[in-house]
Specification:
The chain contains five helices and no strands. By secondary structure, the chain is mainly α. The protein has one domain.
Length: 161
């Protein structure tokens, strides 16, 4: 059971780390990992753009919305990077101070929460201002599929206990 919680937490961290990479690559043109500068997230975004049949105007509108969020996200990304360095320094050479590590982890959690809220806010803006009713229906179907996969994952994890 403990390992399932760890896997879930790791999944959340990796998900949010993707947001960080996205924000970082947007802030540093030409420094991305693949075409589009977004690595795997770029592939996902291109896939969703294709699935939802977004027009060039809609893609430009989404890009504009994302760029408008950058000033709010960038300081959070920088704080998170600083905290990551603190964690690496605090645990170097096998060192472990429970209170210090917990304090850094709590700060990271607060920033990750803020990044997750910002991501959901951006998704809401895109959904409500950019997508057509047909695209919203497709997006809703995709979200329902995600919910089903989460339910399957949880059932799989509880069945193993």
């Amino acid at each position: 059971m403990k390992s399932k919680h760890i896997q879930w937490a790791l999944g959340v961290v990796l998900f949010v780390a993707g947001i960080v990479v996205l924000a970082h690559s947007q802030a540093m043109p030409g420094k991305g990992m693949h075409r589009g500068g977004w690595g795997r997230h770029g592939m996902f975004l291109r896939h969703m753009a294709r699935e939802l049949n977004l027009t060039d105007a809609q893609k430009a509108q989404i890009k504009s919305l994302a760029q408008a969020e950058r000033p709010a996200i960038q300081p959070l990304v920088q704080q998170l990077a600083g905290l990551r360095k603190q964690m690496l320094t605090a645990t170097a050479n096998g060192a472990f101070d429970q209170e210090k590590v917990q304090a850094i982890a709590n700060q990271q959690a607060q920033i990750l929460a803020q990044l997750m809220v910002a991501r959901q806010q951006l998704q809401s803006k895109i959904y409500n201002t950019v997508l057509t009713s047909d695209q919203k229906a497709k997006a809703d179907q995709f979200r329902q599929g995600q919910l089903s996969r989460i339910d399957q994952w949880v059932q799989k994890g509880t069945a193993m206990q």
